[in-house]
Amino acid sequence: MPPYKQCRKLSKKVSSKKRSKKRSIPSVYCRKIAFDSNILIAVERVKADVFSMARQLFGEKVKFVVTRQVKDEMKQLQEREARMQKAVKVALIALRKEHVRILPTKAENADLSLIEAAKMGYCIATNDIALRKRIKEFGVAIIYLSRNRFLKIA
Questions:
Q1: Which fold has domain 25-153?
Q2: H or E element: which one contains 34?
Q3: Which residues contact 35 (CB under 8 A, 6 or more apart)?
């Protein structure tokens, strides 16, 4: 066998081994997902149905929640910024349509409330990089939009 064909076979074996190494998901199965406002606003902005994508990843029995602080943050965004009104309105309608429950927390703001939810064992869906880094230490799955279209798990 010519040497160049042997090299191709070896490179295929190495590359297939690299692909088989997948990152382990911190939580085996997400039964409860808490959403941040930025990923909910993406429902309208990039036309991504995060609820159905989450169901595809974790099954039909997954439960969705948002904290009171996240919902208040979205309402404040709707009142303050005219360009966000439509996106927030669509996100709030999606919350009602998907029967998203409100999780009571005692935190001061939305980020702290999501950290509190992570301590309770909820998987967190957010696009906020700083918040993802803070939540990573709790060992729960972090869900985010990759390339504005696909849900990924960290």
A1: Rossmann fold (3.40.50)
A2: strand 32-35
A3: 50, 64, 65, 66, 70, 100, 125, 126
For the chain, give every domain's residue range.
25-153
DSSP tag of 151: E
Tens-level pLDDT at each residue, the chain (154 residues): 444 444 344 334 433 444 444 433 433 468 899 999 999 988 888 888 899 988 888 888 899 999 999 999 999 998 988 888 999 999 999 999 999 999 999 999 999 999 999 999 999 999 999 999 999 988 888 999 877 666 778 6
H-helix or E-strand spanning residue 123 = strand 123-125
Task: For residues 147 and 150, give the distance between their C-alpha atoms in angstroms, rounded to a whole number.
Answer: 7
